[in-house]
Fold this protein.
Amino acid sequence: MDTLPWRGTGEAPLDPARLPRMRGMRPLKRWRYVGVYGERVQLCAGVVRIAGAPQSFWAVHHRDGGVFRERTVLRKVVDLDDGTVRFRGRGVTAELRLVPAGERVSVVSRHGSHPVWTRKTPVRATGEVTIDGVTVPVDAPGLQDDSAGHHARVTRWSWSAGCGTAEDGRAVWWNLVDGLHDAATSSERTVWVDGTAREVPPVAFAPDLSSVDGLRFEVEAERARHDRLLLVDSAYRQPFGTFTGTLPGGVVLREGYGVMERHDVRW
């Protein structure tokens, strides 16, 4: 691991499937997050495990109907097996299939005393979301985040993920971060244009998450929690909304949908 950070589209130098549950006093954190960012519906779903103990969550923002629903529980109520997003509750049922829509980018970085891994995959989601008996078809782009490692006790990051269309009509996805996998090079910061990945330079987030570099963000709905547990204290914001402006690297958006996020956690 002397060559970290590492970034590539092939096999990473750290195998997340072989990481031990504990490394010294640091528990293994592992998560899968899927975000779908469409013109009519935006949603996210995730499963997080800390030393094997699960937490799962989902949120749906129906932009046409002005409805926002969410749920977070300390057990697995979301199915995110490869290529699938399924959940139900609080008047919502979601059934989606995912197909890759661009290059997968993997990154291994050192965080605290140990290496940590992430893989970001642009996807296309198709299926249905039903809200209070009203079924909404979904055919929209999104992003899948798979991550694992023995992260530092105190972890803070700001993050943005989204999808849209450039002024010239090309499809774009982005993944921007400050605080984790954020080295000057070999970072997870990526803009995909028609599925082709390109790393972009470091970015700066506004304190109120209203912008990140040349991207401006308009909040429409927000998932926020502050969990205080025995060994975990997690303050989290993830607003959903729309983006305007210019992506790092100079791609001007015609339209953009997605999320901003800030996470401050002791785990």
User: Anything to note?
Assistant: The chain has a mean pLDDT of 97. The chain has one domain: 6-10+26-266. The longest strand covers residues 114-131.
